[in-house]
Amino acid sequence: MPDLEPLKKEAALRAVALVESGMRVGLGTGSTAKYAIEEIGRRVQSGALTRIVGVATSEASDALAREVGLTVEPLDPRPLDIAIDGADEIAPNLDLIKGLGGALLREKLTEMQSRRLIIIADHSKLVTQIGEKAPLPVEIVRFGFLSTVERLRQIVPGGRLRQPGAQPYVTDNGNYIYDAQLRPGSDIAALERELKGTLGVVETGLFLGLAERAFVASPDGVQELT
Ligand code: 5RP
């Protein structure tokens, strides 16, 4: 496997080139979005960008943004001009799986409100169909989580509660995550509706029809998908 870090950075720089002074910017979460936040910070520090306000999609991105000198505000009802974020799977029509980094709920809340959602990734995230490589993260409330997991298993049989150690993984919102195994080729719009209608489910990592474009970097260069 080649070193993906330079590729992630290259994709991030292409997206940051779309950020203009005065914009309210959705700041994604993860190892690729980190490069975008750092670059926006660099441009603000150098004076190339002014009056930028960031809205962070996780506590980690909030902390990083402040560290690199960005003004960060909470999400409010005003639209964002642009949001830049990574993804775990990118289908040819730009449907996405997100949330392996655990920030899916704040990402969806923030990015739904953005005029433009720009995805940045290395080529390992490209799939021909959603569900091909990554599990689908589903954020669930802690109360009665075993019952919610049972309900989810009726809908998507494969999967497990995210539990990296002795305790389940806890999101920034105090919830748990169930990582579902999808069958590629399933009707994901119908699945999204069914999951969202399931008691105990807060949000899913399916981002359907939200992304405007993706910059996907490979050793051959950066591909722009629209
Ligand atoms: C976090 C996310 C991330 O954008 C996604 O997991 C990609 O992360 P990385 O750039 O580290 O591969 O959805 O909730």
From TrEMBL:
CDD domains assigned to the protein according to its UniProt record, in alphabetical order: RPI_A
Coiled-coil positions: none
Amino acids binding substrate: 29-32, 85-88, 98-101, 125
Signal sequence segment: none
Pathway membership, UniProt: Carbohydrate degradation; pentose phosphate pathway; D-ribose 5-phosphate from D-ribulose 5-phosphate (non-oxidative stage): step 1/1
Entry keyword set: Isomerase
Pfam families assigned: Rib_5-P_isom_A
Family the entry assigns: Belongs to the ribose 5-phosphate isomerase family.
Protein name stated in the entry: Ribose-5-phosphate isomerase A
Encoding gene, per UniProt annotation: rpiA
